[in-house]
Amino acid sequence: MADRVVLAYSGGLDTSVAISWIGKETGAEVIAVAIDLGQGGEDMEVVRQRALDCGAVESVVLDARDEFAEDYCLPTIQANALYMDRYPLVSAISRPLIVKHLVTAARTHGGNIVAHGCTGKGNDQVRFEVGFNTLAPDLEVLAPVRDYAWTREKAIRFAEENAIPINVTKKSPFSIDQNVWGRAVETGYLEDLWNAPTKEVYDYTVDPTVNFLAPDELIISFEKGRPVAIDGREVSVLQAIQELNKRAGAQGVGRLDVVEDRLVGIKSREIYEAPGAMVLIAAHQELEHVTLERELGRYKRQLEQRWSELVYDGLWFSPLKDALDTFVVHTQEHVTGDIRLVLNGGHISVNGRRSKESLYDFNLATYDEGDTFDQSAAKGFVQLHGLSSKIAARRNRLAGERGL
Description:
- One of its GO terms (molecular function) is ATP binding.
- This is Argininosuccinate synthase.
- It is found in: Cytoplasm.
- Belongs to the argininosuccinate synthase family. Type 1 subfamily.
- By secondary structure, the protein is of the alpha/beta class.
- The protein folds into 3 domains: 4-173, HUPs (Rossmann fold); 176-354, Alpha-Beta Complex (Argininosuccinate synthetase, chain A, domain 2); 362-396, Single alpha-helices involved in coiled-coils or other helix-helix interfaces (Up-down Bundle), CATH 1.20.5.470.
- It is 42% helix and 20% strand.
- It is built from 14 helices and 14 strands.
- The strands form 3 sheets. The chain has a 5-stranded parallel beta sheet with strand order 3-2-1-4-5, sandwiched between helices. It has a 5-stranded antiparallel beta sheet with strand order 10-9-8-13-14, with helices on one face. A 4-stranded antiparallel beta sheet has the order 6-7-12-11.
- The protein is elongated.
- The relative contact order is 0.12.
């Protein structure tokens, strides 16, 4: 019986070529799996048919938009996850979902090999393969782009020589990955760090100056860390992301120009567009400032960076990530309330907060009449708070006087 390869299929050049190449070079049958994560572009039925036209024996198309929003974007919001304090994990959180569905497809269609179209320089090869090895260690992994040193030129030549039904061009300089959570653009002239992005790089956002005189003020409501309404209208997590992509994108919000540390040890320059993601994380962070007790908030902020690193590094299914998820969910018990923001000129400005779970006490915070804070207790507190530093400084001072 021939091998059956389950391929993560995007509908683009590399994975379309991979279908034909795998068949010709290995004799294996290919099951193409394409997943709708809200990336837009081509109709998924067109993508499904292209895989068949390229030689796939089965072509599976899945609508996973709600699953992606609920099970991957929402935990990212609740963890305020920004890798290197900037990148909202646009590609990183989509890979474990794709891995999960490829493993399911392999079980359903009798596949014994899973395949991806990643290069050897990127993070995605790690995210895919660590995920496969965790969920289905019995499956072999095939990575033709990496393991056979494909270049775009080689892929185009193979497509032309083998009449693969896909429009190919050498003109587009960029490598693009996108989903409802955001859009990632790299390569081409962006590899020179001094080159500024030009307008053709962007798609989810407009120039921040276009609507500068028409700022957008809105209110995002959360229940236990989950976005549930915008301007009082109930929304699902997916709907919240979609609406904010449009509204924040119209204000130029969510454009990120990042030099990041890749897992493989090199630095890369990436342009990201994540309008909805950046607004939701900013609003959620602000509500946590109001509702989380000080020490819990401080500790959570430390773990947020570790959570982001684990996800970026392809360890979504790891024991530590699982344990941190439990902690994050526990912290969301009181993260309920409304955040008012203004989106304008590429910026997010919070100008209002309210919550029935708020730890802000007006009578303790005010400096006016009605102040209930006992200021007489502060003197002793200050003395005790600095006592250890005072004692250490005295020791050092005496040592200096003795010439030690």
